Amino acid sequence: MKENKKKPAQSSRIFIIIWGFVMHIIFLWGVMDANFHSPIIQGLPVVPMPSGSPAKRILVFVADGLRFRTFKSFTPPYLNSIIKKGGVWGISHTRMPTESRPGNIAIVAGLYEDPSALFKGWKENPVDFDSVFNQSRASWLWGSPDIIPIFTKGNNHNIHGASYPASWQDFSNEPGATKRLDDWVFQEYSKWLANEAPAYKTEDKIIFYFHLLGCDTAGHAAKPQSKQYVDTMIQLDRNIKKVVDNTENYFGKHTTAYIFTSDHGMTDWGSHGSGSTDETETPFVAWGAGIAKDSNTIDIKQADITPLISALVGIPVPVNNEGVLHHELLDPKNDEFIANALLTNAKQLAEQIKANRELTTGRSIVNQFYKDKEYHEKLARAERILDKGATEKSITELEYVTKLSEEVLTYYRRYQTDRFLFCLMLMWVGWIALLFVDLSGLPRRTIQLGCYSWMLLANIALGVASIPLFIEYAVAGCKEWRLFGYGMICVISLWLAFRGIIKKGPTLEIDSNKPFIEALGIVFLTFMMFVGLIYRWTFSISMLVAVGLQKLIFDRNAPSWLLITGAALVVFPLLPVVGPQPRVYIVLIALGVSIVPIIRKRRIHNYNKVIEVIRIILTSLLCLNVIDGRAWLSWLLLLSTPLVISLYPKDWNQRIFGVTVALLSPLALLSASYEPIFFLIFATHIQHWPTFEFSQKSESGLRVLRLRNFSTAAFLMLYTLLCFFGTGNMASLSSFDPSWTRHFLTVFSPFTMASLILLKFVIPLILVGCLIRALAPDSTIFSAVLLLGDCLAIPLMYGVTNQGSWLDIGSAISRFAIAIVLPCLLLLVFYLTQPFTTFSLQDFLRRRAIKNQRLKI
After folding, report:
1. pLDDT for 146-183, tens place per residue?
2. Where does this protein reside within or beyond the cell (predicted)?
3. Helix, strand, or coil here: 343?
4. How many Cβ atoms are within 10 Å of 631's Cβ, its own excluded?
5. What are the domain boundaries of the chain?
6. Distance (Å, rounded) from C-alpha 379 to C-alpha 558?
7. Which of 366, 385, 723, 749 is the most exposed place for a label (fewest CB within 10 A)?
8. Which CATH architecture has domain 57-113+130-321?
C-alpha cells in the first residue's frame, strides 16, 4: 500500500521537474525572442521610384568615427566650401548602439540595428535585408574588411566590393598607419575610373560607397581631440576633392551626386557605443546633381539618408527602410519629382506598416492603431492632391505622412513585444503558483463535490481561453504564430496552477516569533537584490537588512562576529569597482592580516600552520614580483590548494577555516586591489553562522516548507550576488583584464586567462557552497531559492531591452539571466564543494592502509 501511495507522489515530482525545466527554457527563450526578434519582414513589395531622377550616379563617403563637434570646429577646406555655396549640410543623428555595423546599415538600408544580430554574430552575416545596393544597377564598395563583406557576401550579381587586409587596422599610433587605410580606398576608385569606368559612362542607377576607417583608427589610438585625428580628416578632405574633380571631369558636370557623412561619433577618450552627444551626432554634407543649396544647418536621422540616395539616382527605396525623405535637401526646381519621390517613400512605408499590422493583429480592425488609419487616409488625400497638380500642398501633406510612419511602426512592434511579455509573465506566475503549491501544499484529505465542480470549471476555462487565440490566429489572419504559441502555453500554465491549488492545500509552517517582520524582511531583501543588480551600491542596504534579519532570527544565539562582519560587508558595494591597475599594498595587507589567526588558532595542527604560513609568504613575494612565479610556482600554489584543504579535520569550524586560508593564496595572485580583504571578512561571516540544522519536518512528520527556509534562501542568494558585486559590477563580470592573470601567464592565452578570471569569481562562491552543506543539505532550501529566484525574474524580464549601447543591452540580459540561473548556480556549488567539506587525506590513506592489510591477510 505504501508503495502504491509513493508512486503518484513520485510521478507528480517527476512531472514538476520536467515541467519546470520546460518553463525555464520557454521563459528564457521567450524574453529573448520578444526583444531580439528581427524586425525585418521578407517578401515586401518593391515600390518603384518615379522617372526623372536628377543624378545618374552617387558617391557616398562614410568617415568612420568622425564626430560632428570636431568636424564643425576644424571644418576641412573643401567641404567647407561646399557648405558655404555648393550644397546642404547638417547633423545626422544616429541611434544606439553607436557602432560601425548599425551605422553603415542605417545609411544604406534605412534600417536600424537588427536586434537578432546580437545572437548571430555580425561580421560575416549574409545580407538578409534590402539595401540601396540591391536596388541599384551596379554598386562598388571599398573599405574595411569588417564592413564591406556585410553587403557583398552572398550577392555577387550587381554588388562589387574589395577590402584591405585586416592587419592594416592597427591601433598602435604609428605615423601614416591611419592615412594608409583611406588612401587605399581612394586609389581603388582611381583604378576603377581608369579601367572599368568606360563600360558604365552612360549608365544610371550607379552607387559608389567609400568606407573610410582612418578617423576611427586615429580616434582610438590618439583620441579625437588629437592632431593626428584632425590631420586624418584634412587628408580625407583632400582626397574627396581629388575624387570629385576626377569624377566631374570624366562623367561631366551635373550628373553625379555626393554625400559625406559618418556612421558614428566618438567620445573624448576614444570610445563609442553609447548615447552621448559626441557619439550620436555626425556630420552630413550633400552636393551635386539634384541637391539644394542652403548653408543653414539641417537635422536629419541617419536612416533618412537611404531614401535620399534612392531619390537621387532613381532606384526603389529598400523595402525594409524606415527613413523619411527630407524635401528640403533636394533642388526645389524639381518640385514635381520631389512630390512623387515623397509619395513613393510614403507608399513604401505603408507596405511596412501593413505587414507589421498583419503580423501582429491580423486582418482584424479591432486592434488597429488609430494613427494607422489616419496615415492611410492622409496618404490617399495627398495622392489626390498631387493628381490635381497642387505640388507644394501635396509635399506638405506627404511630409506629415512620412513622419507619422515612425510612430505607427513603433506602435505595432511595441504592441507585439508587450503581448509576448504579458503572456510570458502570466505563464511564469502560473509556474510559480504551481511550484509553491507542490512544495508547500498538503494533499486534501477529502475532495468534496465542490472541488470536482472547480476542476470542471478549470477545464472549461482552458477551452474558453483557447478560443480567442485560435480565432485571432486562424480566422483573423494573424501571421504571428509565436503569439498563439506563447498564449497557449500561458493558458496551460495557469490551468495547471489552478488544478494544483484545488488538489492541494498550500501550507507554510511559521517557525518565527515575529513572522510578519521576517516575511516583510524577506520580501524587502528580494526587492533590494533586484535593485542591486541595477545599482550596485544598494547591496549595502541589502546587507544591512540581512544583519537585522539574522539578529531577529537567531536572537540570543546570533554570534557577535556574524553581525560585526555582516556590518563590515556593507562597505564594499560602496567602494569603486576593482580596476585594472594593481594596488599591491592592499593585497599584502590582507595576506599579513591572515597570518594572525593562523598562528593563534589553537585547534589547528602545527604542520597545517607551517604550510599555510609558507604559502602566504611565497604569495607575498610573488605579488611583490620578488619571485617570478609564472613558470611553475604560482601554478603550484593554485593546484595544491585542494590537497592542502584535505589536510584539515572534517569538523565544520576547522574545515571552513582551512578552506578560507588555502583559497586565499590563489585569490591574492588573481587580485588587483581589495578582493582578498573582502574575501577574509566574507569568510569570517560564513564561519560564524550557527551550524545547527533546520528540521524540515512538521509535528505530523510530513516535510513542509517553512518560513525559515525562505530566510535562509534569501541569505544564500544575497551571498551569491555579493560574491560578484562586492568587488565588481555588471561590466566587470564580462571584462577581460590581462593584468589579473599576470602572475600565471607569460604569453597571451584567451582561454587560460578566461578560466583563471572565472576561477577568481568562483573562489568566494565555494564558501557559500560550504555554508549550504553545513546548514541544511536538503532540497527544501533549493526549492525556496528557486521560488525567490523565479519571483526575482519577473521585474527583470521587463528590463531586457534591445535599445542602448552594447553594454546596456548586455547588462540587461545578464541581470535577467542571473535571476534564472541563480538556483542552478547554488545547486552547482553545493555539489562542487562536496570534496572541500568531506574529503580527508588522512582518512583516505588510513582506509587504503587498512584495505591493503586485509588483502595481505
Report:
1. 889 888 876 668 899 999 887 776 655 565 667 888 89
2. Endoplasmic reticulum membrane
3. helix
4. 9
5. 13-39+331-507, 57-113+130-321, 515-695+703-845
6. 74
7. 366
8. 3-Layer(aba) Sandwich (3.40)
